[in-house]
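User: Can you predict the 3D structure for this chain?
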Amino acid sequence: MNQEKVFSDWKEREAIAEAMIPLIGKLYRDHNVEISVYGKLVANRSVISILKSHRFVRQLENQELSVFDTYPVLQAMQSINLTNVHVDIGKLATGFKEHGGSQDLTDYVSDAMAHAEQYNNDKSHTDVVLYGFGRIGRLLARLLIEKTGGGQSLRLRALVVRKGSANDLLKRASLLSRDSVHGSFQGTISVDEANNTLIANGNVIKVIYADTPDTVDYTAYGISNAVVIDNTGKWRDQSGLALHLCANGVSKVLLTAPGKDIKNIVMGVNQADIDHHDTILSAASCTTNAIAPVLKVMHQKYGVANGHVETVHAYTNDQNLIDNYHQGNRRGRAAGLNMVLTETGAAKAVAKAMPEMAGKLTGSSIRVPTPNVSMAILHLNLNTLVNKVQLNDYLRHIALHSELQKQIDYTNSPEAVSSDFVGSRAAGVVDGLATIANGSKSCVIYIWYDNEFGYSCQVVRMLQHVTKTALPAYPLEC
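Assistant: Here is the predicted structure, written as structure tokens:
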């Protein structure tokens, strides 16, 4: 191997990735155009992140895709009148190469984006309120703040908490700024104590102190028709969550936990069940979001007769750090020192999003001494024969090319462990090397999932769907 040539090639790739950043930024800031490479967002990303997004395709499809291919696509897009769309330059570049380059690149991109040019989102922004500011609440805040600079269709206006101490505001800011699992906040955060607000990357976020949802008057803070995301888990039924709707300025409520007598929605699976009249919805659980998309595609192709779901789940705040009384069985034992057998409602909850799975799944769970990233193991009995190569090819194709690209990711790394999936934006990541299928009508599928961040991404996707602020994705042909 010629080391000088390799190094020279790397430097050239870095230079091109650097040149891509202002083009990506201009499209995002001026036209609200999100750019991705096979589903991996590259807006507001570093040079190395852009290069890694191209590497992802080469690893999974053994197909060369580099910034040498995608940079010309970005250049061609500058002369096309695009606004309020999501564009996958990886797929455009691959499509152009498959056509043999017989057409002018600008004409090819223009033809591929013909329908996108007619899309015009003139909708005003939607106010968003976070009720509760724990693990999920702070990650939702990060995700919403991250979108600053684009069309800003969603605006985080306030967070509602119970006041904890005299320096409560500073503590909230510090917890948002620093996270032991997910790292430092990417940006700047300042505190305006006189106005009880946090200012994060230019977003002015009012901190409201309240004990119950129905006592808040959001209109007093200039907030109207807001979507409240309740991540406290305190209220999970229609009557409890309806308290939010009693507050002035609230139009809808999203729950970040399984709901009892409300629609449980898993994006990519049953979002079509949402009616515009629905005012209270649940985003189900992290585990349900991880397994339902995979179950959906497995049932579509092979037919799922029945199965068992075993989750190996990171410990959570409801467990004790050291042995102490807990009303739940086993959860009183030290979370950082033990594997803890517990129950999971994920198997039954799947049926709420996929009625065809009703009565077909059983489930169990083990809490393990890791702070984040969990695994779901699906033992499935199918209606048709399947082998490992066939099954992995199918799931890899789904991850790269289907409408479930944001929900299902795929890895074939022989060294992958749980910490590698911290920050994964997918609902679940299929571990192809762990798949078991030997030509019979049964299989075992292993799915990693960031039970905090990946789930929060699903909640934001649901929020975008409910508020009709999700950007249409192009090219249409995957």
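The mean pLDDT is 91. The chain has three domains: 3-118, 126-257, 286-454.
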